[in-house]
Design goal:
328 residues; alpha/beta; seven-stranded mixed sheet; six-stranded parallel sheet; 12 helices; 27% strand; globular
C-alpha cells in the first residue's frame, strides 16, 4: 500500500510517499480502505520530533481516517453493528496517512447520512477531543458559558458547534477579523481578535464581570494567568495544547478564592476502553446532530495524499479555518 512517511524529523518536505506492507487486523479490529485522512496538529508535532509515537502504534502519521471496512473481526463488527462494506470514520493511534489502516472496532463510527468519506475523515480527532475535554472533563452544562481559544481551528469549529447545539453560550478568540467572522457564522455568540484586543478584558465586559464557566485552551504559557482572571466562580480551565509554552505563572490566590479547576489531557495514549466510551457517547448524543445538519463538518482544504507536505505547510501557517484533509 502507499503511505506517507516521515523520512526524518524536520520541515514539511520530510513527508514523502512510500510503500509499506498492508496491516493485518487483529481481534477487535477492522481493516479500512482509506478514502481520506484527517490532518491534525499532533501530526505536525510528530513530524518535527516533538510527539513520540505511543508504544505499539504505527510510526506512520495520521490519527483519523474514513473509508470502507474490507476485513476484520466478524464477531466484534457484529456486536458494534458493522458489516463488511460499511463506510466508517475512525480514531486511530497512528497509521492514518495510508491507503489501508487498521482501527479498533470500538473507535469506529458510521459515516453520518448525507456526508462523504472526505467530510467524515475530518470528524474523529476533534470530536473525540472536544467531547472528552469540554463535556466530560470540564463538565460544560446547558446555560453555561464557554471560551474557546483558537475558535477557527479544527478543534475550535467543532467546539463552537457542539457547545451551541447543547445549549451553551460560546465566546471565542481568533487571530484576524476574518477568522472572527467565520466563528460567528458557525454560531459563536462573540468573537475576540486576540491580536487587537486583550481577551481577558473583553471576556469580563461580555460577561458583565462574571467571567466564563469553562475555557478550552490550546495555548497555555502566558495565557493561563489571564484565563484564571476571566474564569467565573467554580470555573474550569482545560488545557489541551501547549502552543504558548510549557510554563505558566498565575495568581494562585484567585484559584482558591474562586474555587477554580485547572486540568488537561492528551487523547492519543489513552486506553481503548476510554476511547470506546467516547465513541459510544458521540454516537448517541452527537451523531444525530450531524445527521440532521445541526452540526456540520468544516473543511478548509483537501489535498491529494502525495501533497501531504503542502497540507502541513498550510497548518503551520495558521491561515486555515476548520479542518485539512488528505485524499487517497
Amino acid at each position: 500500500m502507499r503511505v506517507i512517511e516521515i523520512t526524518a524529523y524536520g520541515a514539511p518536505d520530510v513527508l514523502q510517499l512510500g510503500e509499506r506492507a498492508a496491516p493485518v487486523p487483529l481481534a477487535g479490529e477492522v481493516l479500512i480502505r482509506v478514502s481520506a485522512s484527517g490532518v491534525n496538529r499532533p501530526d505536525v508535532l510528530q513530524r518535527t520530533g516533538n510527539y513520540p509515537v505511543p508504544p505499539g502504534a504505527s510510526d506512520i502519521p495520521g490519527l483519523e481516517v474514513a473509508g470502507e471496512i474490507i476485513a476484520g473481526d466478524a464477531q466484534a463488527m457484529k456486536a458494534a453493528g458493522f458489516r463488511l462494506g460499511d463506510h466508517v470514520c475512525a480514531l486511530v493511534a497512528g497509521g492514518g496517512y495510508a491507503e489501508l489502516c487498521v482501527a479498533p472496532v470500538g473507535q469506529c463510527l458510521p459515516v453520518p447520512p448525507g456526508l462523504s468519506d472526505l467530510q467524515a475523515a475530518s470528524l474523529p480527532e476533534t470530536f473525540f477531543t472536544v467531547w472528552s475535554n469540554v463535556f466530560e472533563r470540564a463538565r460544560l452544562q446547558k446555560g453555561e458559558t464557554l471560551l474557546i481559544q483558537g475558535g477557527s481551528s479544527g478543534i475550535g469549529v467543532t467546539a463552537i458547534q457542539m457547545a451551541k447545539a447543547l445549549g451553551a453560550t460560546v465566546l471565542v478568540t481568533a487571530g484576524s477579523d476574518e477568522k472572527c467572522a467565520a466563528c460567528l457564522a458557525l454560531g459563536a455568540d462573540h468573537a475576540i481578535n486576540y491580536k487587537t484586543h486583550d481577551f481577558a478584558g473583553e471576556v469580563k465586559k461580555l460577561t458583565q464581570g462574571q467571567g466564563v464557566d469553562v475555557i478550552l485552551d490550546m495555548v497555555a504559557g502566558s495565557y493561563v494567568a489571564r484565563e484564571v482572571e476571566c474564569l467565573a466562580e467554580d470555573g474550569r480551565l482545560v488545557i489541551i495544547g501547549l502552543q504558548g509554552g510549557l510554563k505558566a505563572e498565575f495568581n494562585a490566590g484567585l484559584v482558591l478564592r474562586k474555587r477554580l479547576t485547572i486540568t488537561g489531557s492528551t487523547l492519543r495514549p489513552r486506553s481503548l476502553e476510554f476511547k470506546t466510551a467516547i465513541t459510544q457517547a458521540l454516537r448517541e448524543k452527537i451523531w444525530p446532530l450531524l445527521a440532521n445538519g445541526a452540526i456540520k463538518p468544516v473543511i478548509h482544504s483537501a489535498f491529494a495524499a502525495a501533497d501531504a507536505a503542502k497540507a502541513h505547510a498550510l497548518m503551520e501557517s495558521n491561515q486555515h479555518v476548520g479542518k485539512i484533509v488528505l485524499t487517497w
